[in-house]
Write a structure and sequence with these properties.
The complex is a heterodimer. By secondary structure, chain A is mainly α. In chain A, a hairpin with a 3-residue loop joins strand 1 and strand 2. Chain A has a four-stranded antiparallel beta sheet. In chain A, 63% of the residues lie in helices and 3% in strands. Helix content of chain B is 9%, strand content 38%. By secondary structure, chain B is mainly beta. Classes of the chains: A mainly alpha, B mainly beta. At the A-B interface, helix 2, helix 20, helix 22, helix 24 and helix 26 of A face loops of B.
Chain lengths: 694, 426
């Protein structure tokens, strides 16, 4: 895998006339914007190769070190379907912006079931880490693999239903394509499960492969039903086809059952049928348990093989070509098997049949030779292997990385490779392999898949957990993606916040709260805005909102949102201004409750401790007026002096120029205050003097 | 097996239940609560795995489910509910769907229900479904993130849904006429024909199903976001908000002020859901952002009677069982759904140990319960126990909504699945 990938193929965005104009583009984390431009009309690249490297580019620019090019799975678009060009109605004019998305499959409604259900399995697998050891660990991994497959199958059935019920032919073919992709995925996964996850050894290996073929060649069942439901099964034109298929798939009991029908219908062939039946019955099969050794099995096999040979040579079946060919198949005669090409439909069926009748104790490492020759024999140079064939071949060759690479190129989604690679990684099969960029392959593919999920309007939540299990770059990716989620309701914001808080992503928490606070502020919801900034511990913003509250108070003469301000509690300490707001409101409450001396003390404290902003001092002093004018004396002499000092500080602080600009109201206020203070002082001196004297 | 257990743990067969310690809210120590809750939680999960698998059937629906509600049963009905509605959120195309959990014909031999929910009909809904309540057998009221409140009618003869009534932008920010001026309507509650809605704009609307205009609107009822609403009595409602307050509003009074305000101590943790005890109206349960379950006695004090440390993240919904209120159900963002059972603390049941940790009968306690102080308010340490079961093993994504009626439970998750359990008390 160290070779660099070839030139990226060109991808044409429908509706863009790249020959006539230049294109410009902007990368996003999940999609790319492309538009036509007239910039720099001369020279330069006249065509934009819109490959797949959205992830690359973004990783290259935002992350510290991953390479800018090269990916394990080949560069460039594996299939045109992976692109989705939106807004593509446009004429070739520069007024259109095209949205190029990377992963079309994400948008298939039915596949969402696959994504969601497999997400649960994925999480379960990550959590199960090292719970078991040795044999039970393998059992567990095989179970996980089977769970994944059953999800694929369930999804396939749903998709099939959708295809059947779709009236629109375009939709129907789209669903059908998806069904065939899913079925190919399941086929590959199953083979990987046998060869890599379970790592079946010689003997059981063949049984597993037989199961694999039986599971995926299901045309036979319909044929059997048709034959058996006919009046006279053995006279049915497909009768021998069905028997052959059973034999080719090693389903001996079923083949013998059909043979018995032939025997009862055709007295002349009774003897022949009996002998063939006997051969089939005696055929030795590898056992799943440890009841027999391989040598034992091979001995039995040799013996049985010779017996078949004898019957063939002495012409027992000469009168019936069907039975003779079956006998030849039992002997593993390649030509006889190849004659049934039509019934097997695929080269891997041929391979398994061939192994069954000539090398039943094949070892995993020998598979590659048989696989290659089977494919060559079966295709016979007539057709070249398709992507699926190459993938299966790579699996038979135990080239795990090749399998993943080919799958990435051939399949239209990242789901498959990401999950398969993760599973293989848990089987400790991929450890030795390191990419020369980024992290390891598992992480690379998971990141790709999760990024695709994040580009979806609604599947982003699944992506979070995948990023969590990418130790190296997962967090950086998550940080970049999570900030780009549109927050249309507070509830959604809370969900995103929870994700960030759980992962101690303080920067993102602050940014989300700030966005929400700004929104609330714009909507004139000061209370909400304050709550959000308190949650973000954003002192500056809290100050800003507190000022708004105070401004409102100055204008209207009463506080809004009392339920909030009265309940600030310890969060009041977030910013000085907020503290002032809370305390000032407390002063109003005390005053309202006629607890004058406490109110007076608080008011004075607000100024002397410099909690109140200077601009607000005049208001505070004015608030002191009614307290000074009360019948009983409230401010002590000490306090009155303090108040006077505050007033003088305030007036002295202003320059002469400002004084001239002050209107009459202000001057009058100061005069009134001075008068009230002087009178209060006079009263308090008398009172305190009297008290001392008595 | 029959080894003598210490008296305090008589109801605690190993790892099958737990004792939730309660204490006065004022004396509650956050740190200690967390530790106690954390320990017990893990035990609970183990319980669930074996139990929940048997009876629950799941269906993946290709949309994130924000609400799930059983259709109410006619007064005389004896059979369990079989129809429920769901609403989706955060989709480009949100939908209201009506589901059937099959007729009695598909019940298996051993009485276990086999089939999964079948979609009867669905209809597009603009915006996220924020809340949903059945008004009657046929009509369901839906609150939208666009600020709209819509009544959909389910035509049972031809299985279709249609819009019956709509209040455009019942909740709005500064400018109602602006194209995006709507504010999310976060909660709705019905008492046919009355519908009360609350929203992010801090507004309370009193609507009537048959009137185009709101009967009454309280602007600026709350300075923060109102998260949920429920009826306390026919003329009084309860709201919870994002600064941890529980408010009672008397709709007979013309004053636009709450008649009472309750609040959590100090830390202003937002409350997300509220439910009232079906028989004893002074008992109210709320769920908060930190996953805490608070029980309030609105006759006394301004603080919760007890705080129970529960989920690890936002508690999205809390429901008393409508006919058997010793049982309470809560669900949370952390992907768990808890069944709280206080029935054991009222009626001592020595047989409990042999029932494998399950409450056996669920009708019998109603009468006993009425005469005693409710188990939810009890502070007697000797009776102070509660059995809690997590009904979801292998939790992953948020459980956004649940509904409980008779022996049936339905819940919906962000993992795009709905789950139905028809034998909750089996």
């Amino acid at each position: 895998m160290e070779e660099l990938d070839a030139e990226p193929p060109l991808m044409v965005v429908p509706g863009v006339d790249s020959a006539a104009r230049q294109l410009c583009f902007e990368w996003g984390p999940a999609e790319m914007l492309v538009c036509e431009t007239l910039f720099g009309g001369r020279g330069g690249c006249r065509r934009a190769a819109v490959g797949r490297p959205l992830g690359d580019r973004w990783a290259g620019s935002a992350l510290p070190c991953p390479g800018q090019c090269g990916r394990p799975a080949g560069r460039g678009p594996p299939a045109p379907t992976r692109f989705l060009a939106g807004a593509g109605e446009g004429r070739p004019s520069s007024s259109c912006v095209f949205v190029v998305r990377k992963d079309q499959d994400i948008y298939v409604q039915t596949l969402r079931k696959l994504f969601n259900e497999s997400h649960g399995i994925f999480i379960g697998l990550q959590r199960s880490e090292e719970e078991f050891a040795g044999k039970s660990r393998k059992t567990q991994l095989v179970q996980v693999s089977k769970n994944y497959r059953s999800v694929i199958r369930a999804c396939m059935e749903d998709m099939h239903q959708a295809a059947v019920s779709a009236r629109d032919p375009a939709l129907h073919s789209q669903y059908s394509t998806q069904v065939s992709i899913l079925s190919a995925m399941e086929l590959i996964w199953n083979l990987c499960e046998i060869l890599f996850v379970e790592a079946a050894v010689a003997g059981p290996l063949l049984l597993r492969l037989l199961d694999w073929v039986r599971l995926h060649v299901c045309d036979v069942d319909n044929m059997v039903r048709e034959v058996l439901s006919s009046e006279n099964p053995s006279k049915h034109e497909l009768f021998w086809n069905v028997v052959d298929i059973f034999v080719l798939q090693g389903r001996m009991d079923e083949a013998r059952h059909l043979l018995s029908k032939e025997a009862s219908a055709n007295p002349t062939s009774v003897n022949m049928c009996r002998i063939l039946d006997d051969l089939m019955k005696k055929m030795p099969v590898p056992s799943l348990g440890n009841t027999q050794t391989l040598t034992e099995m091979e001995l039995k096999w040799q013996h049985w093989h010779e017996e078949c040979q004898r019957y063939l040579q002495d012409g027992t079946f000469a009168s019936n070509s069907h039975m003779e060919s079956i006998c030849k198949i039992l002997l593993g005669d390649e030509n006889a098997i190849l004659e049934k090409k039509e019934l097997m439909t695929t080269w891997y069926h041929f391979l398994v049949t061939r192994l069954l009748y000539s090398h039943p104790t094949v070892k995993p490492m020998e598979l590659r030779f048989y696989a290659q020759s089977s494919m060559d024999l079966f295709l016979g140079g007539e057709s070249s292997p398709e992507p699926l064939d190459t993938i299966l071949m790579a699996a038979f060759e135990f080239e795990m990385h090749q399998v993943i690479k080919e799958c990435s190129i051939a399949l239209s989604n990242w789901w498959f490779v990401a999950h398969l690679t993760d599973l293989l990684d848990h089987c400790k099969l991929l450890q030795s392999h390191n990419l020369y960029f980024g992290s390891n392959m598992r992480e690379f593919l998971l990141l790709e898949y999760a990024s695709g999920l994040f580009s979806h309007y609604s599947l982003w939540q699944l992506g979070v957990d995948y990023f969590d299990h990418c130790p190296e770059y997962g967090r950086v990716y998550l940080e970049l993606h999570i900030e780009r989620i549109p927050l249309n309701t507070e509830q959604k914001a809370l969900k995103v916040l929870r994700i960030c808080e759980q992962r101690q992503m303080h920067e993102q928490v602050r940014s989300i709260c700030k966005i929400m606070a700004m929104k609330a502020l714009r909507n004139n919801r000061l209370g909400s805005a304050l709550s959000w900034s308190i949650r973000a511990k954003d002192a500056a913003f809290a100050t800003l909102i507190s000022d708004r509250f105070l401004k409102d108070y100055c204008e209207k003469g009463c506080f809004s949102d009392l339920d909030l301000i009265d309940n600030l509690g310890p969060s009041m300490l977030l910013s000085d201004r907020l503290t002032f707001l809370g305390k000032y409101r407390e002063f109003h409450r005390l005053y309202g409750e006629k607890r004058f001396s406490e109110a007076a003390k608080l008011l004075l404290m607000l100024m002397t401790a410099h909690i109140a902003p200077c601009s607000f001092w005049m208001t505070l002093l004015t608030d002191a007026l009614p307290l000074l004018e009360q019948k009983e004396v409230i401010f002590s002499a000490e306090q009155t002096y303090e108040l006077m000092r505050c007033l003088e500080d305030l007036t002295a602080g202003k320059s002469d120029k400002q004084k001239f600009q002050d209107d009459d109201v202000e001057t009058m206020k100061v005069e009134m205050l001075r008068l009230a203070l002087a009178r209060n002082l006079a009263r308090v001196i008398v009172k305190e003097g009297t008290l001392e004297g008595s | 097996m029959a080894s003598p257990a210490p008296p305090g743990h008589a109801h605690c067969p190993a790892s099958l239940s737990l004792l939730a310690r309660r204490r006065r809210a004022a004396a509650a120590n956050q740190q200690r609560r967390r530790q106690a809750g954390g320990r017990s939680r893990r035990e609970v999960v183990v319980v669930a795995a074996a139990r929940a698998m048997e009876d629950v059937c799941a269906k993946f629906v290709s949309q994130k489910v924000s609400k799930a509600r059983w259709r109410p049963l006619p007064a005389a009905a004896l059979q369990p509910p079989d129809i429920f509605a769901t609403g989706s959120w955060d989709n480009e195309d949100n939908r209201i769907s009506i589901w059937s959990v099959g007729d009695l014909g598909s019940v298996g031999l051993n009485g276990e229900y086999q089939g999964e929910p079948q979609l009867l009909c669905d209809i597009r809904h603009s915006g996220d479904v924020m809340d949903m309540q059945f008004l009657d057998q046929e009509r369901v009221v839906v609150a939208s993130s666009t600020g709209n409140v819509t009544i959909f009618r389910h035509h049972q003869n031809n299985q279709t849904l249609s819009t019956n009534q709509r209040w455009e932008k019942a909740h709005y920010h500064v400018d109602r006429s602006a194209s995006c001026g709507g504010a999310a309507c976060t909660g709705v509650i019905c008492n046919n024909p009355e519908v009360v809605t609350v929203g992010e704009d801090g507004r309370i609307n009193l609507l009537r199903a048959d009137q185009k205009d709101a009967v009454r609107t309280i602007d600026n009822a709350d300075s923060s976001t109102l998260h949920a609403v429920t009826f306390l009595r026919t003329t009084e409602i309860l709201t919870v908000n994002s600064i941890g307050q529980l408010k009672i509003w008397d709709l007979r009074q013309q004053r636009n002020e709450p008649s009472q305000i309750f609040s959590l101590t100090g830390d202003r943790v937002p409350l997300h859901c509220v439910d009232r005890h079906p028989n004893q109206q002074h008992i109210v349960a709320t769920g908060g952002q930190d996953g805490m379950l608070s029980i309030w006695d609105i006759r006394q004090g301004t603080m919760p009677v007890s705080l129970l440390n529960a989920h690890e993240a936002e508690m999205w919904e809390v429901h008393f069982h409508p006919s058997n209120p010793d049982h309470l159900f809560t669900c949370s963002e952390d992907g768990s759904l808890w069944h709280w059972d206080t029935s054991t603390s009222v009626a001592e049941k020595p047989s409990f140990l042999h029932q494998g940790g399950r409450s056996t009968t669920y009708f019998s306690h109603n009468t006993i319960n009425q005469s005693l102080v409710s188990a939810w308010l009890s502070n007697d340490p000797t009776k102070d126990r509660m059995e809690i079961t997590n009904l979801i093993p292998n939790q992953t994504l948020s459980v956004n909504s649940l509904d409980i009626l008779g022996p049936c439970l339905v819940y919906g998750t962000d993992a795009e699945a709905i789950y139905v359990n028809r034998h909750l008390f089996a």
